[in-house]
Amino acid sequence: MLGRLNHVAIAVPDLVAATAIYRDTLGASVSAPQALPEHGVTVVFVDTGNTKIELLQPLGEGSPIASFLARNPSGGMHHLCYEVDDIIAARDRLTASGARILGDGTPKIGAHGKPVLFLHPKDFAGTLVELEQA
Ligand code: CO
Fold first, then answer.
1. Domain range list for the chain
2. How remote is the CA of residue 7 from the centroid of ligand 1, in Å?
3. What angle do CA 61, 45, 9 make, to 5 degrees?
4. Residue 67 CA to ligand 1 centre (angstroms)
5. Which residues of 54-68 are buried (b: 16+ CB within 10 A; e: fewer)?
């Protein structure tokens, strides 16, 4: 079921500073910032060749990463995203095994225009997991 690691998301309080660390200090190729108001974040994509890092900064009121940054003021790893071939089959398999899906279990369109779901961190080794239909 589990496919490749699509991205690692890092929530940051200062997107400009975090982008500079990846671009200038680490020498990575980074995208321009993209505002995603429907997701409550502004994102910069870092290309690491075998996967991506997504730097996320809150955008607007009620951002889904606001409470994470309140607990982790200097930022931190927010979630991992794995690809799956069939997100409905993956959801049904996980629910049948007792794992909890966040929200109402209906896939939403994620930052890459593909259906995504988030899995409860308490059921996945303390890590928020995103599944994206590849
Ligand atoms: Co993500």
1. 2-133
2. 7
3. 65
4. 16
5. bbbbbbeeebebeeb
Residue 130 annotated to the active site: yes
Determine the distance separating the centroid of ligand 1 and the alpha carbon of 129, expressed in angstroms: 8
pLDDT tens readout for residues 16-59: 999 999 999 999 999 999 999 988 999 999 999 999 999 999 99
The catalytic residue among 54, 61, 83, 130 is 130
Q: Provide the whole-model pTM.
A: 0.93
2-133: what fold? 2,3-Dihydroxybiphenyl 1,2-Dioxygenase; domain 1 (3.10.180)
Helix (H) or strand (E) holding 95: helix 87-96
- Collapse the DSSP code of 87 into the 3-class scheme (helix H, G, I; strand E, B; otherwise coil) and give the result: helix
